[in-house]
Amino acid sequence: MEGDLEIEKTIKYFSDFDYIGTGMTSLYRKMYRHELNNGGRDYRVGIKIPIYMQELGLKNVDVRLNDRVKFINPYGDSDKHTKEYNQITTAWDWKKRLLNEDKEKMTTNLVNRGLTKGEAELFADGHSSICDHVIDNKDSVYILKPSCTLISYGIKE
What we know:
Elements lengths: L1 E2 L1 H6 L2 E2 L9 H14 L7 H11 L3 E7 L3 E4 L5 H14 L8 H13 L4 H20 L6 E4 L2 E7 L2
Antiparallel strand pairs: 1-6, 2-5, 3-6, 4-5
Helix pairs in contact: 5-6
């Protein structure tokens, strides 16, 4: 099982928030390609595993997608909501508002990962707007986050 971050980063949903409008999806892609082209991690390896399996001689290679979706429901069980809200906001670093110093550090890091300064500032603003939205609407925001984990399998004869 392996994730595909290019798919994963594009399919988040927050009620009453325009995630696509942040422009972060294309910036993630640019960072991934920059890292891959410079000898770094391949963030799309998950989608390539069945090909590697076939090329290594496995038979009956196939793939399915894990259908688990994190659904943070503010109107469901209160304890479950609190636990899952805290988990996802911690995992995705949405648990605190970004100060100017935080945005400057993020911008510098993103420039080092292949973005221009303007793109990095746009990304930091997008991340900050997500943080603000989930913090301001903790008790009413729905968050849906599919795992996008590919499960590849085959038979070794």
